[in-house]
Structures are given as C-alpha cells and as structure tokens.
Amino acid sequence: MATLNIVESATTPLASLSRSQALTANRIQDIDLTGASAIPDSTTNQLLNVAWVRAQLAGIYIVSDQVVTIKSNSSGSPDDTLVLAANVPVHWYPARYHTKPFATADVTKLYVTNASGQPANITGYVADDATP
Asked: What is the pTM assigned to this prediction?
C-alpha cells in the first residue's frame, strides 16, 4: 500500500489553519512534466500515459505553472476536460466537497494542450486502487 498525503492550509495575520488527509491506495502514479519534460508552448494534445478506473480513484493532485487544458481518453471527443489555472492546484479525494475531476469515464490516457506562451511545468499524483 502507498500513501498520498494532501495538505491544505490557510493563514491570516491572526491565525493559521492546517488540515492533512492521508489517502491510502495500492498505487500512486507520478506526473512529472517539469524541466526538460515540460510541455512546450503551442503544444496541442500531447499524450500523457496515465490511467485509472474512476471507481477506484482514491485521490488526485495536479498543478501547472501555466494555464493548460487536459482532456481524458480522446483529443477530439474527450470524456472530460479540465482547465488548470496557473499555480492553482486541483485536488480531490472522496471526503472533499468538490466535484471529482475526470468523473465521466475510466481514464485510459490524458492529452495536454498548452497555449500559454511559456513552457508548462505540470506535477501531480494519482492515487488509485488498481488491481495488481
């Protein structure tokens, strides 16, 4: 078993709050498109080989330093489309109030488009209970 720990925090001049959620799963897939592997500007539908069964998704955390669009399963008729704002992470796990990203179908692959004007460094993790 593997653990993905997602930490959320908020700070004001008077106080700070922090909460962490440990997600246990059979597998954690690493998304590391940084440095030499960053998605170049003007890239359309670059394939990202990551896959999971939606019913087995234990959690996801993904962030990009540029605005990018991520499509699931097809570059032309995707099951889901997620637009990542620059430096705003998307994270989800079952206890979150937010909508589950990529919830329409099992994910067999992702396609990333970057039209931001700069290379996009994308990092993240997908925790799932894939059958070994």
From this structure: 0.90
